[in-house]
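The instructor's notes for this session suggest beginning with a concrete chain rather than abstract definitions. Hand out the sequence below and ask the class to guess, before any prediction is shown, which regions might be ordered.
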Amino acid sequence: MRYTKMHGAGNSFVLTEDPTGKLTGEDLQALALRLCSPVTGPGADGLIVLVPGGDGVDFTMRFYNSDGSLGEMCGNGARCAARYAYEHGLAKDPEHIRFLTTAGPVSARRISREQYQVRLNDPSVIDLERRAGDRLCGYVELGDPGLPQAVVEIPLPAFEDPDALREKGRALRWDPAFPKGTNVTFVSPIGPGRVRAVTFERGVEDFTLACGTGCGAAALVLILSRRFSGDRLEISMPGGELSVDLNRQGGQVRDILLTGPTAVVGCGTLDAEN
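After discussion, reveal the predicted structure:
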């Protein structure tokens, strides 16, 4: 089995194809544990498997976290999958790349060789004031079943103590206020239309260098709560810069568009006997 390692703003993935669609959930769980480990594989935050698509889509994206758990969706992973699909002939039209995820349909487009934009799943839950312990968080679920995202605003100096921030992220990730568990994105304004952010991701159980869906949720919460004006937010994460544009119609959000870089790290072959 051949695989390609990619990253989106430092958020890393191993991508491969399942042309027959015969790999089971147990197969993919074992594959994720093997490939995402830096000991038994190239190491990554998650595994993406592209399965042939049906009517109206180019492919289906199956995403597994590095701990082997099934993920509903992954924004940076979706951008990497779109680039992989276009460059490997699975998607013919770079302006209209369409695919399915566990959380629902997603579309993407190529902006340049490295820059890709993805339309994230529509929010199924928006709670701008979710109480978790002694904190008030924004909470969003993207797609159906929804990918849970908590958004917590912190003072800028808090980023300088990553160990303390990690403990806060771990506690919120398991807080009873989030029955499905949650990703936790910490944000702090750094200028007009700009924030610094970092995400503690469930399934990785640590900070990642970037989180696309976390950025989408952060933009949704901060803009809808009127912390920022306009419909665009530039987000600085440890691994790079991402941007989110919201298209709104009346009181409803019609589109959450995530844009950022993708990169190919390398390719390899998995020996089934080892």
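Then share the key points. The chain has two domains: 2-118+262-269, 123-259. The chain is about 20% helix and 45% strand.
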